[in-house]
Amino acid sequence: xxxxxLSKNPLKxxxxxxxxxxxxxxxxxxxxxxxxxxxxxxxxxxxxxxxxFLGLALTxxxxxxxxxxxTKTVNASPLKKDVQPVRFGIKAGGNSAYxxxxxxxxxxxxxxxxxxxxxxxxxxxQFSIQPEVLFNQMGAKDVMYSTETDNGxxxxxxxxxxxxxxxxxxxPLMVQMRPVDKFYIEAGPEFSYFLNGKNKSESSVxxxxxxxxxxxxxxxxxxxxxxxxxKFNFGLGLxxxxxxxxxxxxxxxxxxxLTKIDKSxxxxxNNNRIFQLGLNYKF
Length: 283
What we know:
This protein has an eight-stranded antiparallel β-barrel with strand order 1-2-3-4-5-7-8-9. The chain is 23% helix and 52% strand. It has 283 residues and is of the alpha+beta class. It comes from Chryseobacterium panacisoli. This is PorT family protein.
């Protein structure tokens, strides 16, 4: 048997020497490499921290400027300064009403009442809006004739009058202005819806003889025909008021209707006039 001799690789000892030399160099310079790497890391951290602090400073400055601007804007508005809270309340009082075709006087005034609730919404220290919902009585009275006769023995007084009583649900929308803290004036529209009503006729005869008076009275009442009445009533109100305390106040108002009552008659001689005087209580 013939044995072949394996030839040795001439490159292997050379490569081993190179790797050994490289390992020796890395081992001798590892501390320098590690130190250089740590230095770069520290520099990178410092750069990141600087940018982070700069960004936070810019953000804080922007927010502070925005807040200051908003504060100045709010303070600059006179409508938002010293605004009182929204308050609810109730009110009630007496009415004195007549029709536009009548002359204002004692013999034409139909007495009634109003009652309901309201909410007062301030928009500034001096101005507020007050919507209301009221049960509201309107109408008129008319003295058809009044006579007196005296024959020397007996005195006779005769009076015949008619009354119209009309019940509405009214929704006034008043704008109030306060020149001083407790006193205000108001104006605004009033929208009303007719519910029902009555026509009443009354007569009285008073006879006096020898100092003795005998009175005879009679009356008749009938419902108003709703088909003849304009259901919706629109008017303009003007009034004033005074706050007796922070909760209790007094109010006076005049309302002039602009729509006709009876559908068959002209509006100029056929609408409501009403005076109101009442008390209100704010919660």
